[in-house]
## 1
Amino acid sequence: MNKKLGGERAAIRYSEAFKTSVVREVETSGEAAAAVGRKYGVKSHTTVQGWIRKYGNGSRGKVIRVEKPEEIDQMKQLKDRVRRLEQALGTAQVDLALERAYTEIACERAGITDVAGFKKKAAGSPGIGR
């Protein structure tokens, strides 16, 4: 049994021809998708935007970026710099992990139980530490 509940609405189905004609009007007139949708009784402006993405020629909804050659080179240089910095950071993290492990092993072999206290003392002593 198909009974409609009080709050349900009937689904509206639009034909392909209707959708493409709405999209063409949006693209040729330059009006907003919401305005053209209201004109034809389409309830939601996002519905028309979805049709534009699906059936449009690409003139609406896409961002076209125009750059000068210097800007492209600068972007490439910045990406390369980020890549090198990420590699350097990774190397530094590995070095730090090795240093921590070495300090713990050295303290264990020397019989020092308070590694944090040893680090504080060693950092202040002129003969020990970095």
Note: The mean pLDDT is 83.
## 2
Amino acid sequence: MRFIVLDTNVVVSAAIGLAGPPAQLITNWVLRGLVQSVTCPTVVNEYREVVRREKFRPHGFPPPWLEYAINDSLQLPDPPDWPHSIPDPKDAPFLALAKAAGAWLVTGNLKHFPRTARNGVTVLSPADYLSRLEQSEPPR
């Protein structure tokens, strides 16, 4: 089983752009159980807070599949604080969770996760991760 941590921007992008790589990743892989997403209370709280922002209401937020995706995720406790400095400290729990779970982090903001601060965590864009998935096993 493949384990991934989805950055909040991937969740938002999937709900806005129904044909883009984030949406394909979530609908064709995560919601079908072919890839296991990993969450923790801090990540779940951020998902729920962000998708309820006023600016996303015109896009039909929150997306109807979000609670299903959360409930179907591997839910772990909050990991220890990330020991390395990154540009936006609010992103640190995503790296910490990926490290704790042995998962890859999928984000649309690669620059928020500099290589020097990843501490062995693989960080990929949705398009790059999707490409790797499709090369290894097409969705059913």
Note: The chain has a mean pLDDT of 93.
